[in-house]
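> run fold O-antigen ligase like membrane protein
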Amino acid sequence: MIAASLLLGGGTRAGFLSDSILQLASIPLLLLASTRILGLERTKETNAILAFCVAIVLVPLLQLVPLPPAIWSHLPERANVAAAFEVAGNKGQWAPITAYPTGTWLSLAALMPPLAVFLGTVSLSNIDRRQLSYLVLSIGLLSACLGLIQVAQGPNSPLRFFEYTNPSEAVGFFANRNHFAALLYCLTVLASALIIDAGFNSRKRLFEPAALLPLIAGFVVLVILIAAQLVARSRAGLGLTMAALLLAWPLASFDPHRGTGLRSGKVFAAAVVVSMIFALQFALLRILERFGSDTLDDARLPFARNTFEAARAFMPFGSGMGTFVDVYGMFERPADVFAAYANHAHNDILEAALEAGLPGLLMMLLFGAWIVWRCFELWRRPTAKAFATDVLWERAALFVVVLLSAHALVDYALRTTAIAVVFAFSCGLLVRPFAGVNASEQAPDVHGDPIDRARFERRYPEKGPSSAGEPWGADINWPDEWRSDPFQHKPGKK
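> ok
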């Protein structure tokens, strides 16, 4: 589902055939994930998260419930609608809260792929989640390479899959360069985590092939991602990519007790510097040209002002999910009419306030509080039983969520299925696995951190060291008294 969404979900508006295919394909995953979750033991935290998912679905569903005229005619901005019904001879007709039911149905269907991916992710073990992270990186790398080829072939490249697109920039599998750039800075965070994790696990083995290959792979991926970001020429994407690289520094020193933060920081710094040197050689001029005039720059402020007025007029219930285009024109001033088509507010918070009303604002506030709480937990008190690698990927996922949320203030990348699925997957990584799903995990590989191995053996003593093959340090002639518990510190001994 993740791979299909990244390949087909790059459209910028509802109604694409590819989006319909993804929505239909998400139904089996949605059913399987829901069935699996119902059979697992849940905590108060996980029950609250599942209740939040139900609330997300209930918002558009309740907006579609038909209401008697005595109720809906007294809703905000419904007087003209009631007068039109009376002129048409339909006085007394029942109507829902939403001003455009078809748009609300489409919005409800658009929730299915990200919701299915989120529920599927939270029902998996940590090892399975890491494998999905590698899958996201792989498909994203393919999209980045496609973007580089598109620029090399020019505006008439046959590899541009959307009729209305940015013909001179890299777009990958997307229609809009800004949304392609959103995927790239998300992948930059994941690639940074890959490099840092490889740096952690390479101590005392830096020049062995098993240690060098992940570092080289992460470096190559980072070079390609930064190069594709530069030729996409999205200013928001460039700014958030720099933020992504800055946020990667806390990842490089995320577990000081391992004593390898310095090495990982050096490895990551070298990868970033060399990547920028390679990428800037052929994209610097295009970047400077991009910071010229842009019609949409002047349009964003009027979009935000008019959307705010519309949201205030439709409070507290909102105009209905998917009704922005139909409602925005009622509040657009003649002086604010631009050549750019206002298909979205370019500010997801304002657009959600208009369409979902007070419930939407409340849910965004709860989500923000949860993100702050998870940030505190991941940095101040990470789960004691969690492997260091898992904590690293959780923190990387937190950065992805923060960056996409910041981008939502100036664009609508989250309105595409592909980015919505990446956002949902990252949120799923932030949820602790349900009780029992990690029981099938195996110990870290033979090159893993011994601290991680010790944690695994203490957590799953029934598996024993033999479950991961040859134990770490089995080739060393340890004293017999150490073999009983090599991780137990005894007084007077180092």
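Residues 2-61+104-294+345-435 form one domain.
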